Amino acid sequence: MRAPPRRDSGEVREMKNVGGRQWSRWQRAVTGLAIGVLVVVSGFVWRAVTATVTITPSWTYDIGYGTSAPAVADGVVYVLGGELGEDRMYALDAATGKQRWTRKLPRVPSAVGYSDPVVAEGVVYTTDDGRVYALDAATGEQRWTYDTRNRARVDFGPAVTGNAVYFSDGTGRVYALDAATGKQRWTHKTGRGGFRPVVAGDVVYVGDEVGRMYALDTATGEQRWTYDTRNRVRVDFGPSVTGNAVYFSDGTGRVYALDAATGKQRWTHQIGFGLYVRPVVADGVVYVGSARVYALDAATGEQRWISETSGPYVSVTLAGGVVYVRNIEGDMYALDAATGEQRWTYEVSDGDYYPDDSVVADGVVYLDDDGENIVHALDAATGEQRWTYETGSEIYRPVVADGVVYISTSSDKVHALRAATG
């Protein structure tokens, strides 16, 4: 089904050609929980809405403009927002939305690059304007700040493991900081570009813009190995590290499997044209999207199945034996993880070239529609719509915690919705 175009009132009727068939339906364009019937006549599917329940959020909080998805830990919602010329970290009570504290982050006119907050061991970490900040999670007090001094973008949140903080910047440099003091332990220069580092055991894995994957020692930054794809295209979005193998894809549409200890290539598999998608690995299978969705044997790279529906697909999420994928328009398909058989599909009004990965929690799939600024809650088993909620502006990835969905938007607010009903 497809979310209705936004209107002030009245009924909306829409015709769309899907797979050679004309689908028609009408639906009252209001934000809420829709209760209706499906009638199938001569190949036409009609959805008639018989009742709606207006959704009222548990609370909302104005953060100026939003610049990050929220993070939730120990009953507190952390989110980055602010006003023109300044950024702020907000800590809000998860139950009531009341502000616990806020902290201004210094900003210069040329500020670029910020990340979603990361919470670990009582500390909130975030990046802004080429700096990393560590704030006390309880009080907002600044514990330390680290300045890269190059004003390069730091778009991805740091990886925090043990007593160290790892991140990379737009120059291709990887950093390791002491988590308690912010003191630099080491840096390592890769090719170009600052992509998300992945830490597994005592190794940091990170790709660059010129087709290389690096494995660095977490303690020293020493390069253990590097693998060159030799195609000079981006290796970003971070690898998936499972067991003793590293899996990643590049801009040529090729998937790679490397030995995690040595960097030796185990196999490669061409999946189509190039999209920058992080493979998902589970139960001996690698799932990745391109022109279609592919399931590859993790040990050999042999193709187990390929989806019948065409993409391109740019987001892959695995939960409960189902692969949830989204195409460049933001539409969702639910595929059986073992066979690739399509279980259901759900269409949104418009998409983002790189829609966020879907969030699956407690039998519900949450996805954002940036075309209409609507969050959709779907039954994970059937794809039936449970509720929708219109935010009014661009949506960052929803976060679900303790039966509540937390949403931040680009314009002004954090929203808290009951997961069961909205």
Provide key terms for this protein.
0% helix; 4-stranded antiparallel β-sheet; Methylamine Dehydrogenase, Chain H; 422 residues; mainly beta
What would you note in describing this structure?
The chain is mostly beta strands and 422 residues long. It has a single domain, classed as Methylamine Dehydrogenase, Chain H, CATH 2.130.10. It has no helices and 40 strands. It has strands at 11-18, 21-28, 32-41, 44-54, 59-62, 71-73, 76-83, 86-93, 99-105, 118-120, 123-128, 131-136, 142-147, 159-161, 164-168, 173-178, 184-189, 198-200, 203-207, 212-217, 223-228, 240-242, 245-249, 254-259, 265-270, 280-282, 285-289, 293-297, 303-306, 313-319, 322-327, 332-336, 342-346, 359-361, 364-369, 374-379, 385-390, 399-401, 404-408, 413-418. Strand 14 and strand 15 form a beta hairpin. The chain is globular.
Low-confidence stretches: 1-53
The end-to-end span amounts to 19 Å
Shape: globular
What is the class in the CATH system?
Mainly Beta
Strand segment tally? 40
Structural class: mainly beta
Give the DSSP E fraction (strand runs of 2 or more residues). over 45%
State the fourth-level CATH superfamily.
YVTN repeat-like/Quinoprotein amine dehydrogenase
Structure described in brief:
The protein has 422 residues and is mainly β. It contains no helices and 40 strands.
